[in-house]
Amino acid sequence: MPTIAIVGAGPGLGLSIAKVFGNRAFDVALISRAKDKLDALVADLAEAGIIAEAFPADAGDPAQLTHALQAAIARFGRIDVLEFSPGAGMSMTTPKEVTVDTLRPLIDSLLYGAVAAVQAVLPGMLEAQSGTLLLTTGGGAIDPYPMLATINIAQAGQRNYAINLHNPLADEGIYAANVAINLMIGADAPEVVPHRAPDEIALDYWNLHSSRTQAEHVIGA
């Protein structure tokens, strides 16, 4: 069976993506920092008849993340789809307040983490001449929000990396794209707040994996 690895897996969008792919005959490798939360997701997926396993790792630690993905590859054979969306939090930092110290943790997890994750799964994809890389950012990676300057900067680098991968990897059978989510993820929100349910958003990831055309997909206004 093919396998999807979800880096930054949680009970919202990560779980929804796992179910969308799992219900289409994918095994699921779940990666995030908290083992107890991962174990709860594995149990949830098992109830739905989906084979999943937890691989705890911090996306901000490249060696740890690489080890987790290598363990997932050893368990499932190889990774056919990588979805990368580690939590960035909501650190409020204006552009004039950005410092090396405030920016570094976001660069470590969002940009260096993305590079480490891709490099861990790419050799198997290149060997198979097949694979999908879906890197997720917020809308601020395209049109920055001034109160989220550090996150915007790190995600802009991650976005550039994903789009840069698109054309050269396409020639080798691998699809890479950036997914920019520019709305609130949730089934409910205040009337003036744009939002979509995670189960609906997760279907976009399946459609991207299936169509394999666009370098970027923006969800939201």
Overall pLDDT score: 94
Number of strands: 9
Adjacency order of strands in the biggest sheet: 3-2-1-4-5-6-9
Radius of gyration, taken over Cα atoms and rounded to an integer in Å? 16 Å
Helix content: 40-55%
Beta-strand level of the residues, as a percent range? 15-25%
Report the sheet with the most strands, covering strand number, pairing sense and barrel closure. Answer: 7 strands, parallel
* Helix/strand class: alpha/beta
Low-confidence stretches are none
Distance between the termini: 36 Å
The DSSP helix count reads: 6
Topology:
Elements: E1 3-7, H1 13-22, E2 27-31, H2 35-47, E3 52-54, H3 62-76, E4 81-84, H4 100-128, E5 131-138, H5 149-170, E6 174-182, E7 184-185, E8 195-196, H6 198-211, E9 216-220
Parallel strand pairs: 1-2, 1-4, 2-3, 4-5, 5-6, 6-9, 7-8
Helix pairs in contact: 1-6, 3-4, 4-5
What descriptors fit this protein?
221 residues, alpha/beta, seven-stranded parallel beta sheet, two-stranded parallel sheet, 47% helix, globular
